[in-house]
Description:
It contains 4 helices and 4 strands. It is an alpha+beta fold. The model has no long low-confidence stretch (mean pLDDT 87). This is Hydrolase. The chain crosses the membrane at residues 6-24.
Amino acid sequence: MKKSLLLYALILSLVFNIYTYMYLSKEVTFEQEKYKTTTTKLKDSLQSVSNKLSDVNYFSLDKNENAQNYFELAQSEKIRNYATLIPYVTGQLLDLNANPKGNPYTGQEQLGATKFSINKVKVLNHRWIIADYTDGEYWGEVLLKYFINEDESVSFEVNQSFLYQK
């Protein structure tokens, strides 16, 4: 009786150990496959976002080597490097928001009590800027030409302006 009980306990522990081993080995395989699938999805998502960002920045001085080369011939150190030129030109344009009648380069006359001010600026290349402006009630966009003068000042010219319907 004692031998058969011992034999049953041995068989039961052997079956339990085999079951536990099989369960844990399948769980490890499952987790590895899950990790591999998740990693693949994340890499694909990252590549997709990277491609979209590249498409969005296609029209940008940061990515346009031809426009960057335009400034290499400049005599001034301030405007030779496009990385310092972008904040310089943007700052010059945004400083014009302090005008009491609003930024003159929105291409719009003041409609109400508040003036039009430029909010966002994107330097597209060595000649063009697109900007977003508002007076708090109306919103619009403007396409500007910009020029770097001999004295390193920046001059702007409104090419086209668009005010959205209310």
